[in-house]
Amino acid sequence: MDEQEIDKIIASCHPPQDILVYNPPYEVLFHAKGKHPQRNIFKNQIFTEVELEKIRRLKEEIKKQKLKLPKDWDDGDLLKFVYGANFKTRGAFKALKSCLSSYSDVFPEDYMLIYSKIYEILLTGPLYMHGRDCHYRPLLIMNFAKFDLKKYTFEQYLQAACFVLEFASKHMLFPGKVENWMCISDIGYRGLSDLPLNTLRKITQVLQDVFKCRLAYSALINTPKTMLFIYSCLKPFLDPVTIDKISIAKGNVATNIIKYFNPYQIEERYGGKAPNLDIFWPPVFPNYPVALDDYNEIKPLEKKKIEKVYEDDSMPFEKHSEEIINTERNINDEEANNEIYEEIQNTERKKRVKESKKKRKNTKLKKTPSDIEVEEINLEYIEPLRSSMQSEKNQTQELIFSPNENIIDAHDEDVYSEPFEEQVDPNNLIIDTTQNSTMCNLHISFLPKCVIS
After folding, report:
1. 399: in domain
2. What residues have CB less than 8 Å from 339, skipping those under 6 apart?
3. For residue 372, which of 196, 226, 356, 423 is within the disulfide window of CB 3.0 to 4.6 Å?
């Protein structure tokens, strides 16, 4: 693949331009579970006195051991190893040394030099990136069903995994704002005997050594019962940070992950609304906003305006932001007007419903038997109370009702919602006073007669 094609892929992976006006909240800067908050953002930050002291001690150990660091590293990079070792200087130095060794083994020189070697693996999708969450963090998908050790070697898969994450670190993040990624691992309901455990364990170990403090949240999905049982046994011994960051789901939806995502940023197979991928490279970032609110009404960003922004790759990053932000402001203004109109309609609808309920409440039957007039009752269809109700059992059907309740005709099965306003003379009614209830029993016959008791 030529350099121009690679440059286009890199440009498509940059965070949206509105990242410039985004300020990460505290829960993104720190992970507050456990005894001490765990820092997630390390670049362009003001460190505490304790953090600065630990960095100073680690630097002294590095100088003492004459360990060479990459030229572009700063105090923030060193602080990651301090957090990884729970603020123990010796542990931090050991982790730092292991990181540099693992990185040099995977990438002897520039990491882009292995691109042609692992290009076919990237297309098959054992590891790939798709979408961003509401805090602009990219989503890493690991599909264990795509690992084929008969076709590719362990070293090739390890290089592919490190390449994807190194590419993400270089081109998908934003220092001081977005420094982590989310991860979904699809087990595919494979048992422990069906998984390449040694390969996965080694790959995971290298990724943990090289990419310190990069994982925000992770979830295992489509897991078999055996793995769920093992995790339930180990969970009491795990620290709160690990428990909160890593979850295991039986189905295909990672609830602790997708709650941060607009559905249009996740594939359908994982609970989102974005189309499922067939080709997994280059990384895919859907042309939808990352915001969570009103996602049911979200429309794709206008392609013409977006394409216009990226016409000239030489344009500075700050100049791109102006046009993108103006584009999204126009879209947001239109959506805001629609929201205001819908809110007015909903308010008027609620008002009408409330008035209707109030009107029905006022029309409830409040009259006492002494207020009912005789002239409105048709005595032709009323007969005296029988001594035995069993003889009428096959001809009548009992229905208990109260005024203003729905009355169901047993013959036609039609529902009438109008209040019962028939007025009768209390002197001509036979009322059973032995029942301690304000209800009355109405025996409705299929014949054109009825008995009131």
Report:
1. yes
2. 294
3. 423
Q: What is the CATH number of the domain that holds 269?
A: 3.40.525.10
> What is the amino acid identity at position 193?
S
- Rg over alpha carbons for the chain, rounded to the nearest Å, is 35
Rounded to whole angstroms, the Cα distance separating 442 from 6 reads 83
Range of the domain at 113: 3-300
CA 42 to CA 82: how far, in whole Å? 12
CB 149 within 8 A of CB 191: no
Of the given ranges (94-98, 121-125, 218-222, 223-227), which has the lowest mean pLDDT?
A: 223-227
| CA pair distance 201, 184, nearest whole angstrom | 16
Q: Which residue has the tokens 């620290």?
A: 239
158: pLDDT strictly greater than 50:
yes
pLDDT at 234: 72
Given the DSSP bridges, would you call strands 30-31 and 38-39 parallel, antiparallel or unpaired? Answer: antiparallel
Residues 6+ apart with CB under 8 A from 193: none
Contact 128, 163 (CB under 8 A): no
Across the range 196-212, mean pLDDT stands at 82
DSSP E strands in 350-447: the ranges are 396-401, 407-408, 415-416, 440-445
411 phi, psi to nearest 5 deg = -85, -50
Return d(Cα 238, Cα 90) in angstroms, integer: 23
Tokens 């009131």 belong to which residue? 452
Based on the fold, state whether residues 86 and 219 are members of the same structural domain.
yes
Which residues, 6+ apart, have CB-to-CB distance to 378 below 8 Å?
A: none
Query: Quick check: 136 and 216 in contact, CB under 8 A?
Result: no
pLDDT band for position 20 (50/70/90)? very high
Count of domains observed in the chain: 2
Domain closes at, from 300, 329, 351: 300
Q: State percent of the chain over pLDDT 70.
A: 66
Which range, 47-56, 192-201, 434-443, has the best average confidence (pLDDT)?
A: 47-56
Higher pLDDT: 300 or 25? It is 25
Tell me how far apart the alpha carbons of residues 55 and 262 are, in angstroms, rounded to a whole number. 38
| Alpha carbon 178 to chain centroid, angstroms | 19
Of 42, 39, 43, 20, residue with least CA distance to 31: 39
> What is the C-alpha separation between 423 and 440, in angstroms, rounded?
14
Are β-strands 181-186 and 138-143 bridged in parallel, bridged antiparallel, or unpaired? Answer: parallel
